[in-house]
């Protein structure tokens, strides 16, 4: 049974594999707050609050291109 999403039965096998992969990856989680580091699967990660990242990104786009262009980019531009 899937724990992270609800999908039609036909999609359950690939999502189950993805859940297992992520579970395995994050089973090797090493936090060292005294050094300010987080390692997952041997790779160093940076923890960022999503709202802060969004606001900083939006502000940078607004400063560079104007607020209207920033809104258009965020809400209307495909990332492909």
How would you summarize what this structure contains?
The chain is an alpha+beta fold and 80 residues long.
Strand count, sense and closure of the main sheet? 3 strands, antiparallel
* Uncertain runs: none
Order of helices and strands: HEEEHH
Number of strands: 3
Structural class: alpha+beta
User: What separation lies between the terminal Cα atoms?
Assistant: 32 Å
Q: Tell me the quaternary state.
A: single chain
General shape: flat
Q: How much strand? A: 5-15%
Mean pLDDT across the residues is 88
Helical amount among residues, as a percent range? 40-55%
Number of helices, where a helix is a run of at least 4 consecutive DSSP H or I residues: 3
